[in-house]
Amino acid sequence: MQIFEGTKRTEQGKLSIYRFKVPLDSRMFGEGANVRVDIDARGVDNVRQNLTIAITIAVLIAIAVVIAVANWLAGSITRPVHILLKDMQVVARGSLDHQTKPHSSDEIGILAHEFNRMTENLKEAQSALVEQEKAEYELSIAREVQKQLLPAEPPLITGFDCADFYKGAKAVSGDYYDFIPLGNGLWGFIVADVSGKGIPGSMVMAVTRTIVRLISNRNQNRAAETLKETNRLIAKQIKRGMFVTAFYAILDERTGTLTYASAGHNPMVIYRAATRGCELATGKGIALGFNEGPIFDKTIEEHRTILNSGDVIVIYTDGFPEAMNAQNQEFGDDKFYQMIAQSGHLDPRSLIQKLVDGIAKHRGDAEQSDDLTLITVRRA
Questions:
Q1: I want to staple 24 with a disulfide (CB 3.0 to 4.6 A). Which of 33, 109, 122, 215 is the partner?
Q2: Terminal CA-CA length for the chain
Q3: Cβ neighbourhood burial of 74 (10 Å; 0-12, 13-18, 19+)
Q4: d(CA 49, CA 64)
Q5: What kind and span of H or E run contains 333?
Q6: Which stretches of the chain drop beneath a pLDDT of 50?
């Protein structure tokens, strides 16, 4: 079929037409036979124009639908992300109690759940950090208190050589020692161990130091009486369950006489130069603070001894004999006394160094579990 576009003359004038020409079978209708159909072009154009408009409208509607669906799909993906980002900004400003609301169970929903868990962990970590900073602040105060209370250096005593050693464990210790000038050639030596640690322990230590210094000057040559009066005052000041062990000795530098008493403390070790051996000055007594008076006064004992040339006294806390190694084995009292006997002929500082090195060697890589406090006094 052939289609031709052209014009045709009619009574009304020229008319635009579309001519459709279809050839016929030559065997039936002869050579060159055909059928021609003329159609008014205006009708065809109207149909074509209407069809074009319909197709255009359909395409535009399809495009609009595709855009709408695309926007909806994009929004369903990006909206939870935007919400999550806003929630993150809130948390970033410090509101760790804020939580996001998961809107789906897909990857974004999983991310929202993980974000909530992260904020909870951050809140816990922040609380732990606050507690840690508070504890460190309290420890710094306690350390400063302790630093101010312990002697800056051992005193110079005529005819005697003194040395001291202190090393606190990880926490602030409750150990306390002091050299107290009593006048008239008398000196007080005290080593004490407070049961509490941290600020409570340091406060009790401060109270103990203040009371001992006050009372010792009133009872110049009476060691037991000094501890009795100290106990009566301390027992009223500290809370139940806390106590203080103490060993107090008074030295007369003119005669070498040593008067001492113990309140539940480790025995004082006396190295005798004449025999190159050790004696234990024990003394009965219970710790300060257990009882306000009657029982403490009844049990405590006072003793005297003479320090001769070359004799040494060692007053210490239990951190030395109870030092633990990695196998949880203590250094032990006997080994501690043996080391003093072997090194007692040395000057006080060298003796202390021997003891400290022996403890360090025994402990090895194990952490120091208790405070190490010790004073030595040697008669020239």
A1: 33
A2: 142
A3: exposed
A4: 22
A5: helix 333-343
A6: none
